[in-house]
Amino acid sequence: MTDIEVPQGITLIDTPLAGIKVDTPAATGVIYFNGAHIAAWTPAGQHPVLWLSDAAILEPGKAIRGGIPLLWPWFGAGADGKHAPAHGIARISAWNLLQAKVSPVGTASIILGLDGGAVDAGLAPELPRDYRLELHISMGRTLIVQLVVMAGEDALVFEDGLHSYFAVGDIGKTRIEGLDGAAFSNRLTDSCATQQGDVTFDAETDQIFESQASLRIVDEEWNRTLLIEKVGSVQSVIWNPWIAKAAATADLGDDDWQHFVCAEAVNVREQSIAVAPGGRHLISQTISVL
Ligand code: TA6
Predict the structure, then answer these.
(1) What is the CATH number of the domain that holds 61?
(2) Which residues of 125-163 are buried (b: 16+ CB within 10 A; e: fewer)?
(3) Residue ranges making up the domain that contains 15
(4) Predicted TM-score (pTM) of this structure
């Protein structure tokens, strides 16, 4: 998967999946090449910021429950509701390590790449083969994740997103600031509304907000606030499965719903991205502990 040399602070790993471990004075973390998946990030002295299921399936070609799954080139089952695999092919494809550096203060700079020509054409027959994806990760006291989609000779139209799972002490004592006044579509009821105040949780939640705003996840149990700034994304999805869906999901523990919330930067449905031949699109989240 790679023949590049990695510096002190970064270790190549083979199990449970091929990838790298980061362990520097600034942070620890794990990134798997399967899906270019950031499975863990813990800034020095903090609780883990990303949540990962104890029941996550860590096998090549399988989606991983937790961390930061990539959404591309479709969200869910796509706009027509007929696309599979769920959330597209980026999160289940084998990416290559292109760069691994560590700065003097311990910030790891990692680049992973995926060539369209290396992806099984049967997985996404509508796509041209000459696209290219890169994931640029800066992992230190802050985590910056940038997904860059580059078109080849043909134009590309796609949905994209960063489906980040954030660890919280207690979902019932967690609120998300930054979406007051935003229009949203509720995926559970197939209806639209306008958000009043902060987003709080007392039931299954699966909403697409029309918003470019930064979010704050305020976690009263751990007395911690996470700031999520984004670029290149005009929507945020907020998801928590709550009790019944967690129980019905094989790679989620029955009580896991209490300990995470997904706050996703996305461009989906009417906000899908069109990239001209030779063009590119970047979507990013910058995550900080305040
Ligand atoms: O982004 C929200 C969502 O699409 C939910 O509807 C929920 O199903 C979640 O993602 C998880 O999807 P997954 O395919 O990873 O099980």
Answers:
(1) 2.70.98.10
(2) eebbeebbbbbbbbbbbbbbbbbbbbbbeeebebbbbbb
(3) 10-168+224-232+256-289
(4) 0.97
